[in-house]
Write a structure and sequence with these properties.
Blueprint lengths: L10 H9 L16 H10 L7 H9 L6 H17 L6 H13 L2 H16 L4 H14 L5 H13 L5 H13 L6 H6 L1 H5 L4 H9 L3 E4 L11 E4 L1 H12 L11 H4 L5
C-alpha cells in the first residue's frame, strides 16, 4: 500500500500528521472556551497553529462567509488534539503510526478517518475531549480497535447532561465497594436509598452504560433500580480523567479530582 491512500492535502492526511505532532502543547488556553468568531481570528494570528497542516488547509480555503460548521468542526479537532496531548501516549505506538503514515498503511488511515467522522458528528464540543481520552487508550492498547469503535458509538448517542447522574451512581457504587456487583449495591442501604432519575437512567441504559434491575427480585417497593455496566464503569473512569470538562453542566469538582486509572 503506497502513501496515495492519504490524498494530498486531504483532511484525513493533514489530521493524521497533526496527531503525530505536539503543536497544541504550546497553546495556553482551552479551545473549548473560545467562540467561533474569536477562534477564526486566533487561528489567523497564531504562528504556532498555522503550522498544523489542517489549519493551513482551513485558512487557505475558508470563504468570506466563515462557514460556522467548518469552523466548529475545526474547533473540535483542536480540542481533541489538545486533550490527547495532555496525557502520556506510548512512544512506541506513536512511532508505529508515524511509520504507518509514511508507508501509507490503510489501518492508520481508517483509524484516523473513523476518529474524524465521529468528531464531526459530535453535537457537543465536550465529546471531543472524551474521544481524545478513548483514542489515547487505543494508542496505549488499553482498548482494542473494536472496543474503540464501540465506545465511539456510545459517545455519539450520549446526552452530555446525563453524565453528572452517571457519575453520582459511580461514586455511590465506589463508596460501597460494589462497582463489580450491581446487586450488592442495590442490596446496600446506599443503593436502596439512592434517588435514580428514571429518564436519564433509561437513556444511559439504552446505550449500554447502565444495567436495570427490577426491584421485585430483591423485595424493593420502588419502581426501577440501576447499576453500572462494565462499559459504564470504564466510561466513568474516562470522565474522571478529564478535569477540565465544561463546568456549565455542574460536573462536581470533587468528583473530577480523581484522575487516576
Amino acid at each position: 500500500m503506497s502513501q496515495e491512500i492519504f490524498p494530498n492535502d486531504s483532511l484525513i492526511k493533514c489530521f493524521s500528521q497533526a496527531i503525530l505532532t505536539d503543536k497544541t502543547k504550546d497553546v495556553l488556553f482551552d479551545f473549548s472556551e473560545i467562540g467561533i468568531d474569536s477562534l477564526l481570528e486566533y487561528l489567523k494570528s497564531s504562528d504556532i497553529l498555522k503550522e498544523i497542516p489542517f489549519i493551513k488547509s482551513l485558512l487557505a480555503t475558508i470563504n468570506i462567509t466563515k462557514s460556522i460548521i467548518e469552523i466548529h468542526n475545526t474547533q473540535k479537532l483542536l480540542i481533541f488534539l489538545q486533550q490527547l496531548q495532555m496525557g502520556i501516549c506510548d512512544q512506541k505506538e506513536i512511532d508505529k503510526r508515524k511509520k504507518a503514515y509514511q508507508k501509507g498503511k490503510e489501518w492508520y488511515y481508517r483509524e484516523v478517518e473513523q476518529t474524524v467522522i465521529y468528531l464531526h458528528r459530535a453535537s457537543r464540543i465536550e465529546k471531543a475531549k472524551i474521544i481524545a481520552e478513548l483514542y489515547r487508550n487505543l494508542i496505549n492498547k488499553d482498548i482494542s480497535t473494536e472496543e474503540y469503535g464501540e465506545y465511539l458509538d456510545i459517545v455519539d448517542q450520549l446526552f452530555i447532561q446525563d453524565i453528572p447522574h452517571l457519575l453520582e451512581i459511580y461514586d455511590a457504587q465506589k463508596a460501597t465497594a460494589t462497582l463489580l456487583n450491581g446487586k450488592d449495591f442495590l442490596d446496600s442501604d446506599t443503593g436502596k436509598n439512592f434517588s435514580f432519575q428514571s429518564i436519564r437512567c433509561s437513556r444511559l441504559k439504552s446505550i449500554g452504560l447502565l444495567k436495570q434491575y427490577h426491584p421485585m427480585s430483591f423485595g424493593f417497593s420502588s419502581d426501577d433500580h440501576f447499576a453500572l455496566s462494565k462499559h459504564g464503569i470504564y466510561f466513568c473512569e474516562i470522565i474522571h480523567r478529564i478535569d477540565n470538562l465544561n463546568v456549565k453542566y455542574e460536573f462536581k469538582k470533587a468528583k473530577l479530582l480523581n484522575t487516576s486509572r
